[in-house]
């Protein structure tokens, strides 16, 4: 290792420990609790280290750093010098207190943006990458209202529900934290580059992975445990039966966090994971207020009437705006229209989701003009793909 100023020596020791192959976080925490700072650990004999944390950990600590270590250290020091970038070690007073309650807190955290957001009341909003339009709207609305109450929104920067949660969190005073499964110098998925830049300025991006670490499937369950560790509760918006969001929920439950889930249609595949965890004891929630109340957080500082933005029409309130579409054929007339749906009709069907939806909401989701929207709805109705409900609402037809 090359000669370093005294101010860099401690970080170098932390980095060496964090990169030591085979050194598990639990073992590292044991060593730190007995010997203190990393420099003191490196001064111990193998026998002394093994007595505390076992032979494997002792060998991992005392193995000399590889030839690439100096280059990695230089990269970390250079990254830390960029505006907004910070590295927080396990003994730093700035380390997120919620993570210290975990059995395996990361020795190093790479943070871009507002460090203060890692010390606030926080709720995770997570869900499917392949979210429905309704799921996207629900995630953004829940995140916006929770953030308006001063609650920080934590999610994983994935496509779908995560991205919508971050967008909603940025709209309020609570802000948002993205916990990522790559190095803090990378953005995954690439489609979220602009969102990541916005979060780095207005919120915070957090990673425990060394700089340059690419996206690997095995990283994301580990990332999920940090999401669970940072928050008081986890809200699952949409999830299939085999979903990473359910891993987050399980980890959060093991840490004593509250678990919430939004219910959905029994016909919607992305409702099944939510229904499953509700059966297992998660709290069914329909409004952000229910989350705030369950967690004992103060009510929002802004009155409900002061909010702006579109609101989803509740299922127990019929839409007042009746559609002019009144196809004479019943849903059963699909046999008369065997032609495949055109791309515009397929797009509208995807926007419909699995819940009753008004014409106004469909117009907002698809950005289609009134004439095109009504013509396409009529096509779908005649094809037996859409059912018109009382009150001017539409619903995907149930087949079989």
UniProtKB/TrEMBL annotation:
Start-end of Low complexity biased regions: 327-339
Annotated region (Disordered), positions in chain: 306-341
SUPFAM superfamilies found in the cross-reference section: MCP/YpsA-like
Gene3D superfamilies registered for this protein in UniProt: 3.40.50.450, Winged helix-like DNA-binding domain superfamily/Winged helix DNA-binding domain
GO BP annotation list: DNA-mediated transformation
Domain Smf/DprA SLOG: 86-295
Domain DprA winged helix: 335-392
InterPro entries attached to this UniProt entry: DprA, DprA_WH, DrpA_SLOG, WH-like_DNA-bd_sf
Family membership noted in the UniProt record: Belongs to the DprA/Smf family.
PANTHER family per record: PROTEIN SMF (PTHR43022:SF1)
Protein name: DNA protecting protein DprA
Species the sequence originates in: Paraburkholderia susongensis
């Amino acid at each position: 290792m090359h000669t370093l100023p005294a101010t860099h020596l401690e970080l170098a020791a932390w980095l060496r420990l964090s990169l030591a192959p085979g050194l598990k976080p639990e073992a590292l925490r044991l060593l730190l609790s007995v010997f203190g700072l990393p420099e003191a650990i490196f001064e111990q004999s193998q026998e002394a280290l093994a007595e505390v944390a076992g032979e494997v950990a002792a060998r991992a600590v005392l193995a000399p750093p590889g030839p690439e270590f100096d280059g990695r250290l230089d990269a970390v020091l250079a990254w830390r010098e960029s505006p907004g970038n910070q590295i927080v070690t396990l003994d730093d007073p700035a380390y997120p207190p919620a993570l210290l309650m975990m059995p395996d807190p990361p020795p190093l955290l790479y943070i871009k943006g507002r460090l203060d957001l890692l010390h606030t009341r926080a709720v995770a909003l997570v869900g499917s990458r392949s979210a429905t339009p309704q799921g996207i709207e629900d995630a953004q609305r829940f995140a916006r209202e929770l953030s308006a109450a001063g609650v920080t929104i934590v999610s994983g920067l994935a496509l779908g529900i995560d991205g919508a949660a971050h967008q909603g969190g940025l709209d309020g005073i609570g802000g948002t934290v993205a916990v990522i499964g790559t190095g803090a110098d990378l953005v995954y998925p690439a489609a979220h580059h602009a969102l990541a830049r916005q979060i780095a300025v207005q919120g915070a991006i957090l990673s425990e992975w060394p700089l340059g670490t690419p996206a690997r499937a095995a990283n994301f369950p580990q990332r999920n445990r940090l999401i669970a560790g940072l928050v008081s509760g986890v809200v699952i918006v949409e999830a299939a039966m085999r979903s990473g969001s359910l891993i987050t929920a399980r980890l959060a439950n093991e840490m004593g966090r509250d678990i919430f889930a939004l219910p959905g249609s029994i016909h919607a595949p992305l409702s099944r994971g939510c229904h499953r965890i509700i059966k297992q004891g998660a709290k069914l929630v329909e409004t952000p207020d229910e989350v705030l109340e369950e967690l004992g957080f103060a009510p929002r500082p802004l009155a409900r009437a002061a909010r702006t933005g579109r609101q989803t029409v509740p299922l127990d309130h019929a839409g007042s705006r009746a559609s002019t579409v009144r196809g004479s054929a019943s849903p059963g007339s699909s046999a008369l229209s065997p032609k495949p749906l055109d791309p515009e009709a397929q797009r509208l069907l995807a926007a419909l989701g699995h819940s009753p939806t008004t014409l106004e909401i469909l117009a907002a989701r698809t950005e289609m003009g009134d004439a095109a929207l009504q013509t396409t709805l009529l096509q779908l109705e005649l094809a037996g793909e859409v059912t018109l409900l009382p009150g001017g609402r539409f619903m995907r037809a149930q087949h079989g």
